[in-house]
């Protein structure tokens, strides 16, 4: 499995295809990650920076790769990338549907609210693992 970070300009060709499934690609404040298995594009996901927090945006698994159990593995990969990137702690939020809510709950997200269309708003707090004494040095700096 290979992970690649891309800019909006590199993925905008897929915009019309994913919009047919109610997935929206954003240009500003967004980081896109693509996953390749055996050189074939399988999944992409985007992470948006929102007020010093991180928002997980829609995931998109290409139709021919759905039901191959990539989603859970790739969700974990995204989580690891984000946790590695945070300074001390941050809040991660997401909107999700009935299709993905159980994955979010298994990954330690909590439900903040749910609207009448069964769209959930979930969040979790991520702490950066630090070595003993490292946090005090960072606070002084």
What's this entry about, in short?
Helix content is about 25%, strand content about 40%. The chain has helices at about 10, 15-20, 70-85, 100-105, 135-140, and strands at about 1-5, 30-35, 40-50, 55-60, 90-95, 110-115, 120-125. The chain starts with a strand and ends with a helix.
Task: Please give a structural write-up.
- This protein is of the alpha+beta class.
- The chain has one domain: 3-Layer(aba) Sandwich (Aminopeptidase), CATH 3.40.630.
- The protein is 27% helix and 38% strand.
- The chain contains five helices and seven strands.
- Strands 1-2-3-4-5-7-6 form a seven-stranded mixed beta sheet.
- β6 (110-114) and β7 form a beta hairpin.
- It is globular, with a radius of gyration of 16 Å.
- The model is unreliable at 134-141 (pLDDT under 50).
The CATH superfamily bears the name Gcn5-related N-acetyltransferase (GNAT)
The N- and C-terminal alpha carbons lie at a distance of 38 Å
Strand content: 35-45%
* Rg over C-alpha atoms, rounded to the nearest angstrom: 16 Å
Remind me, CATH topology?
Aminopeptidase
Order of strands in the sheet with most strands: 1-2-3-4-5-7-6
Q: Report the total helices.
A: 5
The SS-based structural class is alpha+beta
Order of helices and strands: EHHEEEHEHEEH
**Outline:** globular
Using the 3D structure, state the CATH architecture. Answer: 3-Layer(aba) Sandwich
Q: Kindly give the count of domains.
A: 1
Low-confidence stretches: 134-141
pLDDT averaged over residues: 76
- How can the largest sheet be summarized? 7 strands, mixed
Q: What helical percentage do the residues reach?
A: 25-40%
CATH class: Alpha Beta
Number of distinct beta strands:
7
């Amino acid at each position: 499995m290979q992970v690649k970070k891309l800019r909006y300009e590199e993925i905008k060709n897929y915009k019309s295809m994913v919009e047919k499934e109610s997935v929206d690609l954003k240009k500003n404040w967004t980081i896109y990650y693509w996953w390749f298995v055996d050189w074939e594009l399988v999944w992409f996901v985007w992470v948006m920076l929102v007020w010093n927090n991180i928002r997980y945006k829609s995931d998109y698994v290409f139709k021919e790769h759905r039901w191959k159990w990539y989603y859970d593995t790739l969700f974990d990969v995204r989580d690891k990338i984000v946790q590695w990137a945070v300074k001390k702690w941050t809040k991660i939020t997401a909107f999700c549907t009935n299709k993905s809510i159980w994955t979010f709950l298994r990954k330690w997200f909590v439900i903040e609210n749910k609207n009448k269309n069964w769209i959930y708003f979930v969040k979790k707090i991520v702490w950066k693992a630090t070595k003993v004494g490292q946090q005090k040095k960072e606070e002084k700096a």
